[in-house]
Design brief:
The chain is an alpha/beta fold and about 425 residues long. The chain has two domains: about 110 residues, Urease, subunit C, domain 1, CATH 2.30.40; about 300 residues, Metal-dependent hydrolases (TIM Barrel, Alpha-Beta Barrel), CATH 3.20.20.140. Strands 6-7-8-9-10-11-12-13 form an eight-stranded parallel beta sheet, with helices on both faces. The protein has a four-stranded mixed beta sheet with strand order 3-2-1-4, with no helix packed on it. The protein has a four-stranded antiparallel beta sheet with strand order 5-14-15-16, with no helix packed on it. Helix 7 links the parallel strand 11 and strand 12.
Length: about 425
């Protein structure tokens, strides 16, 4: 007897009519027509079943802090950073933990079971680190939470930035972060990348840097990051987040840069919602929107995944914890409307992000963890179009969240009584 069987599932790779059996927290079979008994059965009825969503770039220490100590009136990145600087001395471990746990509750209902959070290390108190390490432990039964030591005010620029980041790593933070474009000079930025990659190599840790989150095409710290990745043998363990300056770079320079990034096997994490909201603020028209060169990076074979980045914090007053919202925006801003392109975007929310995060046992194959999501959609393209309801969220073969299907009731003579937005409105995918 299995613990769980999900029957009649459509899979992201296009297979239909598939059953998935889970036992002892692990997928035991993925095939049509499983006849064995199970303690619980879910009939997917031709709906899409996906591995859980992953968010490889988030700021959980800031989430749900919107309005503290006041609203971001301009909506700009710099005012958001200033607001966070005002709020930082008021932060308490208890409040940080409470907000983060509330966000994790929301994330679970959205099928988001893997999150990488950047944790601000600029305050020498490191209350943010203490809080996020507590949250990591408390949510471990249902969310894999990775932590990045993030020197928000600059590794060299913050008064105790160097010591604080080292202390955060000593406390158990998983990944080395950075923000070279926020140092005082380009030279300081370059030096910070070199120093931080050396720390990662010495400690055997991955790297995930906010890199070139600016409209300045001469902000080229990603070049240094790629070179240092190769120098220290960190290939495949380094992520460049944002990379918005690439939106403004000339084609000749990018034609040299992308092969260097590919040689470094760099993971790339654009953040569509926040990138297009915060970039281009100094432009009139034409107006840049600031997302990196997603199509070109994918075409060059780099592993591209998308992050949510922010939800209701000083930088972004919106957000829902739904990675399909992130992908929906990516389709528009990256102009990736083809079926193959939509499939690539769905992978960027799932498989690619799992690669970025180095997750083991991820996927829908026999032997993978019994973690999955049943969506109110038939295929990835439809899930992205509708930002579909996550009907059931499964962790280790156990249902940990359910959401009723979205349906509308009609009161019109001669018309159907119920309308399911995922039925009868799109061609077969």
């Amino acid at each position: 007897m299995f613990d769980l069987i999900v029957k009649n599932a459509n899979l992201p790779d296009g297979r239909t009519g598939i059953d998935i059996a889970v036992t002892n927290g692990t997928i035991a079979a993925v095939e049509p027509g499983i006849t064995a008994e199970a303690r619980e059965t879910i009939d997917a009825t031709g709906r899409l079943v996906s591995p859980p969503f992953c968010d490889p770039h988030f700021h959980m220490d800031a989430t749900l802090s919107l309005g503290l100590p006041r609203m971001n009136r301009s909506g700009t990145l710099l005012e958001g950073i200033a607001l966070w600087g005002e709020l930082r001395p008021m932060l308490t471990r208890e409040a940080l933990v409470e907000r983060a746990l509330r966000y994790c509750d929301l994330a679970v209902t959205q099928g988001l079971l893997n999150i990488r959070t950047h944790v601000d290390t600029s305050d020498p108190r490191l209350v943010t680190v203490e809080a996020m390490l507590e949250v990591k432990e408390r949510v471990a039964p249902y969310i894999t939470l990775q932590t990045v030591a993030f020197p928000q005010d600059g590794y060299f620029r913050a008064p105790e930035g160097v010591k604080s980041l080292e202390r955060a790593l000593d406390m158990g933070v998983d990944i080395v972060g950075g923000i070279p474009h926020f140092e005082r000079t380009m030279e300081d930025g370059r030096a910070s990348v070199q120093a931080l990659c050396r720390i990662a190599a010495d400690r055997g840790l991955p790297v995930d840097m906010h890199c070139d989150e600016t409209d300045d095409p001469l902000s080229r710290h990603v070049e240094t990051l790629a070179a240092e990745t190769i120098r220290h043998g960190l290939q495949g363990r380094v992520a460049g987040s944002h990379l918005t300056s690439m939106h403004s770079m000339d084609n000749y320079y990018v034609s040299k840069l992308i092969p260097l990034m590919a040689e470094a096997r760099m993971n790339v994490i654009p953040n569509p919602l926040i990138n297009i909201m915060l970039q281009g603020r100094h432009d009139t028209y034409p107006k840049r929107r600031g997302m990196t060169q997603v199509k070109e990076l994918i075409a060059a074979g780099l592993n591209v995944s998308f992050g949510h980045d922010c939800v209701m914090d000083p930088w972004y007053s919106m957000g829902s914890g739904d990675m399909l919202e992130v992908g929906h925006m990516a389709i528009h801003v990256a102009q990736m409307a083809g079926l193959d392109e939509k499939a690539a975007i769905f992978r960027a929310l799932t498989e690619n992000s799992a690669v970025t995060m180095g997750l083991e046992g991820y996927g829908l194959s026999k032997g993978c963890k019994g973690d999955l999501v049943v969506l109110q959609a038939r295929a990835p393209a439809e899930a992205l179009r509708l930002k579909s309801v996550k009907l059931a969220v499964v962790k280790g073969g156990k249902v940990i969240a359910r959401t009723p299907a979205r349906e509308g009731a009609l009161f019109l003579d001669g018309r159907p009584e119920r309308v399911d937005p995922a039925t009868g409105f799109a061609p077969e995918y």
